């Protein structure tokens, strides 16, 4: 029996977030390799479910009593989640793997960074092997003897061979409408580009209601100014949107609190959609030599004229 323990607070299918997809892919791979069921534990609500050879279960005391007898235990979590400490202490004497999915760490002088690192190091025994997902992440951790985790089969999307949906002059954004994801900078740049190019559309897919009110108000002003060029959607099929878009904006200012493997960029590459992202976290390590990915510094997108020019160049690149 393999136990995959996560500190995620929900596990709703279809999975739309990289950390959950990674844990589920690992559970599926383990079940196939060992020819047995895998149990995937989370801290959310809902009913226990079975997906293929993986049992998805809510964390409770009876579950953890069973974990004590598990042969293989892997914990997918963040350094800064207090549940990481509790689980590590609870399973102190059990051989286990701890896979940390942090993005950028807190600044070194931040008290959470300093004390949580100390507590986590104390909670880990010699019977725990810690893994990171990229070399950039491993260097930022500050732990000794951290190994690189081998991504499970089926986690990264395969590069598709066309024919694709004809790519229109669409600029795509998917995610929460918040300032930490550079959405205000996008609005300022698109205001220039849409005014200049009536043949360009800006498609925004907001997958939840978690948005900054001030940012959303600015977006509404943009949509009012360009009603036929600004398209607003809710939850979508990401591949369908990526296939029909020329440029995908993934200009997160930081990967903190998120998965350091930006699965969304891999999805865009798999359908030959160009991506603009920032040089944060592991982006340079992972995509520095990928022609479809334009890596920018924040200063490049803070200037609306410069940012709009970069988007326009990618739109017209294949003409």
Detailed description of the structure:
The radius of gyration is 21 Å and the shape is elongated. The relative contact order is 0.12. Helix content is 37%, strand content 21%. The chain is built from twelve helices and 14 strands. The strands form two sheets. It has an eight-stranded mixed β-sheet. The chain has a six-stranded parallel β-sheet with strand order 11-10-9-12-13-14, sandwiched between helices. It folds into two domains: 147 residues, Rossmann fold, CATH 3.40.50.11930; 149 residues, Glycogen Phosphorylase B (Rossmann fold), CATH 3.40.50.2000. β3 and β4 form a beta hairpin. With 319 residues, it is α/β, with parallel strands linked by helices.
Termini separation? 55 Å
Helical fraction equals 25-40%
Task: Output mean pLDDT.
Answer: 86
Please provide the count of β strands.
Answer: 14
- Cα shape: elongated
